[in-house]
Amino acid sequence: MIGLELLLLIFLVFCAIATVLCKRLVSAIIIFMAYSAVMSLIWFLLQSPDLAITEAAVGAGMTSLLFFLTLQRINQLKGLEQDEDNTKQ
Amino acid sequence: MKTTQNNNSLFRRILQWASESEKESADAPEDPERQEFQEYLEYIDAHDYIEFGAYRYMRYQQRKELGLDEPTFHHHIEPSIPQKKQNVKKSHHKQGLLRKQLGWYRIASVFITCVIILILCLVVMELPKFGDLNAPALNEVAQRYLQQGREETGAVNAITGMILEYRAFDTFGESVVLFAAAISTLLLLRTPNQPLKQRKAGDEILTMVSKYLLPMIILFGCYVVLYGHISPGGGFSGGAILGAALILASLVLGAGEVERVLTSKRVTYITVFSLLTYAAMKSYSFYTGANHVGWAIPKGEAGHLFSGGFLLPLNLCVGLIVACTMYTFYTLFIPTEEE
Amino acid sequence: MLELILEQRYYMISIILFAIGFVTLFLHPNLIKKIIGLNLMDTSIFLFLAAMGYVGGGQAPIIEEGSSWTMYINPVPGGLVLTGIVVAVSTTALFLSLTHRLYRKYHSLNLDVILMLAKKGQEDT
Amino acid sequence: MGLVYNIPLFSILLVVVSGVCIPLFRNGRHVIRFIQIVQCMVGVGSLFLMVELSTLNESFTYQLGHVPAPWGNELRAGPLEGLFAFVFSLVMVLTFSGSREDLIADIKPHRLGNYCLLMQLLYGALLAMIYTDDLFTAYVFVEVAAVTACVVVSAKESGRSIVSAIRYLMFNCLGSGLFLLGIAILYALTGHLLFSSLQQAVEQYLLSGSSKLPLIVSALLMTLGLSIKSAQFPFHAWLPDAHASATTTSSAILSGLLLKGYLIILMKLMVRVFGPFVMVSSYLCDLLLLLGLAGMLFASVAALRQEEVKRMIAYSSSAQISYIFLSLGLGSQLGLLAACFQIIVHALTKSMIFLGAGAMINGVHGHYWGQLRGAARKVPVGGIAFTVGGLSLCGIPLLAGFSSKYCIALAALDSDWQMAPALFGLAASSVLNAMYYIPAILVIWGRTKPNQEEEWNPISIGWEQKLALGFLLFCNLYLGMRFGLVRNLIEQGINLLGSFG
Q1: Band of pLDDT at residue B254, cut at 50, 70 and 90
Q2: Would the CB atoms of B289 and D443 count as touching at under 8 Å?
Q3: Which of D82-86, D298-302, D437-441, D492-496 has the highest mean predicted lDDT (pLDDT)?
Q4: Out of D20, D72, D148, whose CB is closest to B275?
Q5: Which of A53, A57, A70 sits opposite B333 (nearest CB)?
Q6: Which chain C positions have a beta carbon within 8 Å of A42's beta carbon?
Q7: Which residues of B fall within a CB distance of 8 Å from A54?
Q8: N or C of chain A: less Cβ packing under 10 Å?
């Protein structure tokens, strides 16, 4: 049991670092979605189903959707398919 | 704002922006006051380190009266260098500056992360152990919620009982945050008299699948809201699920079907009335509780749908607020055609 | 030492996440990344709270008739986290809408560049 | 229990509910009147509460719901809270009257209603921050204030105001993150969220001597979070932009009231939770003192260099906030008294200065010093308000700023080693204040064209604005000349709040 928990927790940290360092914004948001999903799983393991349901609906669902919509709007504004972010490199 | 140039590097954009502004100021009609003000700004540039604020302005006035014009005004404009070359130079300079900043950012981030982790690690070591049965957090407060919550609130789910009965004032504040955020996005993103967005419907498979899926999601959301005091869930999670269902419906049905029924005005009205109902119910119970008037709401038998006094309507109100807010966020964030 | 770390694993991970989120929100120049950092920071504190509410061998607080209260986990942190999640999503939505407005104006997501452009525009008016 | 005891709860509920009702209105201008009426009602209620509690010399806790305190939420009110609520309501009403024309000019009509709604929610959140007795309730309402304040800043819709709003939101989020982590650690240690229960638990920890580090770190985190939000010196980066680019109403209220709301929470935490022992033994008080001193000097020096009137006032706000930090950092009962007095004086003075500056900016259509030349001749009322406010902040006797500086100096004289640095800071910052306010006053009263007589043709402004500015002037003079009454009230309130130092 502890093994599973540790695995999930380390995956959480990995996701967090990856989403911060990832260059493409779309990928960063997808990784963030995975992070939220794992987080809700962990809360389920911690015997808090209320939190797990809410996090799955709000964190993984709603927040990521808002991110995607914003990116879509921004890409539309730009008139280009490529990602933003790299311009400063 | 058209940005369909081939090279959309950031510095190109800055460059373009800068040159545009120069052109504007050159074309502008000669306005003596504006010119004077411009001169003053140049004076500021030249004398940044000598004098300050309003005092500097007074000195500037004095100097001008005395006819002490500063020859150093134009030191930063070299007319012999062609415009283009100068711009290129400028952009190189900016790039270097940004690069330097970026390097600084990385070092600082790693450093601050390490410091925070170190300090908080020491703190965490001294905290009560994880899962400890004798943790200080498990005191008489939690005990009463768990032991007497069922009789006192009529809720089987202790968390719902706690947030809607014991600590209801916090939950009220939280609904207000949500409402404030909805109104804020409305204020920031909506343009008046926006035409109804005409989007094409999603593709066939998605439509077919979601036609079967949608009623189930709505049913599940309603269940989570209505049985919030009996099983896991409640207004917040159920409201979020219902909001997701609304968004899915609007995506699948396309062509503004959902928007026609749920106009933004109606959504706002629903939110307002739910919030007002919530406030009315809670102020009733705050008032009667604090003044010891009695008039308690019958709690019913714990475990049934119609039990727990105000819990069911409160959950319903919260669910409506959350669902409407989520839907409002979605309608405001969806790309529109004018862009 | 290692045992202690293993025992406090949830707290350790949550403060690591907190540090990452905090620094991203504070120092990353990209606005979208900043918002992700904000969410990381908030969820890490929620993880901290949720772990604090856990009691060894406890069940979810769906109270059954006539059971002892020691069977269940602490419901208080759960309630706080529920409140916190909703606050976090409101802030995120507000942040994103401001980001969108800025992009419409300055065509950039980099806060440094936006600040530079805004300063220029301010002198111009 | 008499009906008086219901005033705190119902003033919060009334304000929030009236805000929520606003989408049902159609005309934006009626909305301004409507919220002003509500604010007046709350102000009268708070005055009544204050007088009643002061004559009875008592404070009370108000249980929210059917369950008593450690289980349910609770509000707490005493003479001090009543006074704060009264002053805040007064400033709200007067600011809305004084900048009504600005508001209508700056904000598009279809947004005016929603703007007023957010203002009203902000005001409700401030009232809740004043009355709350529970840490988590404080957090929730701090978040309400954060969300609403950001949008209030960006309501003017210029690019710059949105940039400053996003920076403001960023700093706010950082602050609330730290604050929430502090709450979480404190909860893990004690298992309580109510101030009075927390105090007992903290005392027990101090007696047993265990877990001192987490306690100090949580106090530090909360202090840091709140000082980021209240724009204390090293964290003030967001403040000048946010205040300079917002419309006058927003800047007056943000600078005059919102920053104080966080400080009131900080003060309550210091007095009612951590108590003198944690604060002094962990050098937290010294940290506050140091921050205050640094802020007083650096913010004033920064204010010297500003070319825009509102930016200068914003930096001056940061300096004035530092005075409050300094007096809190003295760690004595007198220091607390000085801090409370400074909160009230600054709320009244700063809103007056902002309103005066706003009127002048409207009169000459420009906000640089170069454009403001002779503005006070065009808008004499605004000019007088700005002048009196500026002189008051420089510490000219008979004005409110002098009496608050006097209180701080008294508190400093009472302390031991803090005396010299505090007095030095006070003197230096007064001189610096004079160095930027007096040239500013000279510029606005100067002639448009040098060596040239011109006729005196002031722009006429509405009676409402005149009345509001006149009333604020009166308050300033009153606090400057007869501050004994207010001071006694604050002293009584602090004694009822808890003993400190």
Answers
A1: low
A2: no
A3: D82-86
A4: D20
A5: A70
A6: 47, 50
A7: 236-237, 240
A8: N
Could you read off the pLDDT of D90-120 as tens digits, one per residue?
999 999 998 888 888 888 888 888 889 999 9
Mean pLDDT of D140-146: 93
Residue by residue, DSSP assigns B200-262 as: ----HHHHHHHHHHHHHHHHHHHHHHHTTTTSS--HHHHHHHHHHHHHHHHHHH-TTHHHHHS
Given an 8 Å threshold on Cβ–Cβ distance, is D136 in contact with C83? yes
**Cross-chain Cβ contact A87/B232 below 8 Å:** no
The average confidence (pLDDT) of chain D is 87
pLDDT over threshold 50, residue B15: no
Q: State which of D123-132, D376-385, D487-496 shows the largest mean pLDDT.
A: D123-132
d(CA D156, CA C82): 34
pLDDT in tens, B274-283: 999 999 998 8
Return the pLDDT at B193.
57
- Quick check: D336 and D407 in contact, CB under 8 A? no
Secondary structure string (H, E, C) spanning D395-425: CCCCCHHHHHHHHHHHHHHHCCCCHHHHHHH
Chain D residue with minimum CA distance to C53: D188
- Residue C39's pLDDT is 94
Q: Which residues pair with D60 in a beta bridge?
A: D77
Contact D181 C18 (CB under 8 A): yes
Indicate whether B290 pLDDT > 90: no
Task: Give the Cα separation of D426 and D407 in Å (integer).
Answer: 11
Cα separation, D374 vs D379, in Å, equals 9
Q: Where is the domain boundary, B77, B93, B126?
A: B77
Do B and D touch, counting CB pairs below 8 Å (3 needed)? yes
Same domain? For B53 and B153 the reply is no
Domains and CATH numbers, chain C: 2-60+69-124 (1.10.287.3510)
Q: Name residues of chain C where pLDDT drops below 50.
A: 125
Question: Is B284 within the bounds of a domain?
Answer: yes
Domain span at B14: 10-77
Taking Cα atoms as reference points, which of D8, D37, D226, D20 lies closest to residue D127? D8
Q: Which two tokens stand for residue D181?
A: 């982590």
CA distances from A9 to A15, A42, B338, C52 (A): 10, 8, 44, 15
Q: C72 - beta bridge partners?
A: C59
| Domain count of the fold of chain B | 2
Tokens linked to B32: 């003596």
Contact A57 B240 (CB under 8 A): yes
User: Which residue in A50, A68, A76, A77 has the most chain B C-beta atoms within 10 A of its own C-beta, making it the best mutation to test that interface?
Assistant: A50
Predicted TM-score (pTM) of the model is 0.88
Residues B41, B156: one domain?
no
Give the DSSP letter string of D26-39. Answer: --HHHHHHHHHHHH
The residue of chain C with its CA nearest to that of B11 is C113
- The predicted-structure confidence for B192-205, as pLDDT tens digits, reads as follows 655 555 555 556 77
- Give A63's contacts in chain C (Cβ within 8 Å): 39, 89, 92
> What percent of chain D has pLDDT above 90?
32
Q: Do B43 and D428 form a contact (C-beta atoms < 8 A)?
A: no
| Complex ipTM tops 0.95 | no
Q: Which of A70, C103, C96, C101 is nearest to D157 (CA)?
A: C101
Per-residue pLDDT for A82 more than 60? Answer: no
- Alpha-carbon separation of residue B152 from B145, B291, C64, C88, D60 (angstroms): 9, 18, 14, 31, 25
CA atoms of B216 and B237, how far apart (whole Å): 16
Q: Are B172 and B279 in contact (CB under 8 A)?
A: yes
Contact residues on chain A for C85, CB-CB shorter than 8 A = 51, 54-55, 58-59
CA C20, C26, C28, C30 dihedral sign is positive
